[in-house]
Design goal:
Layout lengths: L1 E7 L11 E5 L2 H17 L8 E4 L4 H16 L4 E9 L5 E8 H20 L3 E6 L1
Helix pairs in contact: 1-2, 2-3
């Protein structure tokens, strides 16, 4: 399963602008999940693997703040670490973790943050489409 995040706009994007990214059900998404939950509590929109959300200019300040907070926490992590991604219940119950690389996570956060800036510049919307 994947979550696609893309910019919706009728204007031409600047050269080199990232217009779409996919998040997977992995340690990178689950690291960001608490920040997405806080964002949902603040504006009612949730970056969810299974649902859709549409962020507009009114939402961008909160989205920027959430991504900046996530980046600050990520910067304080070791080069690699495990993130809890769920619980397997069958055939035997066990907790599931995935390895996250700090450099890759920071790149992901920066890409999403740059997409917010591009969407704002283009007076566009940031569309999140879950499976």
């Amino acid at each position: 399963m994947a979550l696609d995040i893309r910019i919706r706009t009728s204007k031409a994007a600047p050269p080199g602008a990232e217009l779409q990214i996919a998040l997977n059900n992995d340690g990178y998404y689950w690291f960001l999940h608490p920040f997405f939950e806080r964002l949902r509590d603040q504006c009612g929109k949730y970056v969810d693997l299974y649902g859709d959300a549409l962020f507009t200019r009114d939402d961008y300040p909160r989205l920027r703040k959430s991504l900046d907070e996530a980046r600050a926490v990520a910067e304080a992590q070791p080069a690699t670490w495990n993130v809890h991604i769920g619980t397997q219940v069958k055939p035997v119950r066990k907790e599931l973790d995935a390895v996250v690389r700090r450099d890759r996570l920071l790149t992901l956060i920066d890409t999403i943050r740059n997409m917010v800036e591009t969407a704002d510049y283009l007076d566009g919307q940031l569309e999140c489409l879950g499976d």
